[in-house]
Automatic annotation (TrEMBL):
Organism: Paenibacillus qinlingensis
Gene3D superfamilies recorded: Divalent-metal-dependent TIM barrel enzymes
Domain of life: Bacteria
Record flagged with keyword Transferase: no
InterPro entries: HyI-like, Sugar_Epim/Isomerase, Xyl_isomerase-like_sf, Xyl_isomerase-like_TIM-brl
Protein name (Swiss-Prot/TrEMBL): Hydroxypyruvate isomerase
Xylose isomerase-like TIM barrel domain location: 27-244
EC annotation from Swiss-Prot or TrEMBL: 5.3.1.22
Enzyme class: isomerase
Keyword field: Isomerase
Pfam families: AP_endonuc_2
Molecular function terms from GO: hydroxypyruvate isomerase activity
Amino acid sequence: MERGIVMKLSVCMDALYRGRDFKESVNELKEIGYDTIEFWSWWQKDVDVVAEAVAEAGVSISTFCTKFTSLVDPAQRNAYLEGLIESIAVAKRLNCTQLITQVGQELEGVPREAQAQSLIEGLRACVPILEKEGITLLVEPLNTRVNHQGYFLASSEEAFYIIKQVGSPFVKILFDIYHQQITEGNVIANIRENIAWIGHFHAAGNPGRHELDNGELNYEQIFKAIDETGFEGHMGLEYFPLEAPPVGLRKLLK
């Protein structure tokens, strides 16, 4: 995909380089021309190895996940906050200022409004911690049609409503273009209308979640629309490559 625009790109190691040696993969990315990475769960990695790899290669970390504890279940709120504090300590060590959070599975037999309120209150409880530490929490809606059946938060409209209720610049949305294309489409308009509440993007082709030029999404136009909003964050490349990772990654740097 040729693009005459400049967008900061972040490569998701757990998607493009899953099963590969972390340090070797980071060095390969640097040689290709990338200077930013991200990943999923820090607790399944040797944080010492991660720190050494990024320091030696001279790359930065845009974001990674906080502990996967439900925010829609108020009984788990204290555990969520404990996991957040633990994750922030790792973020500080890795010079990372954003953490991705999922919200949990929908609870059976509990009114949806009650779960949404728990999510709002749980995020509000995070704000003082986030403000003190200078960390932004990225709430991620996921599609429930293909990949994440039973997950509570799918629509961007509901996600943006929740973020507005929280009302903090330290809590934003991770807008995953792949997930939102499956959930609702209307990607460019939704991005333009809500860019103030978006802190990070993820991108993958649809269907299949492969390279960006594989599928129905016109990423050249999507990237252009995001650039025009003045967005200064990263576009996370979170796809499962059909070809060797460098092939698709080099295309995106043209």
